[in-house]
Amino acid sequence: MTVQVELPCPKCKSTKMKFERPEIRETDIITCAACGHNLGTMASIREKMNKAYQTLNQAGAKRKLQ
């Protein structure tokens, strides 16, 4: 069974990712279903997304203070 994950691929901009498990594990390597680009492990992707989210929140908070 293949699970689809919605993440943007930096190489081809497709959002269809795949890995070969019925559930996501932090050590699973995520690859793009369209071009085969390796995005890294689920844990590293989650960490990058959290950092980006925090940066957006800080930028939004600064704009509200002005």
From TrEMBL:
Cellular component GO terms held in the UniProt record: ribosome
Keywords noted in UniProt: Ribonucleoprotein, Ribosomal protein
Protein name from the UniProt record: Ribosomal protein S27E
Organism per entry: Rhizobium esperanzae
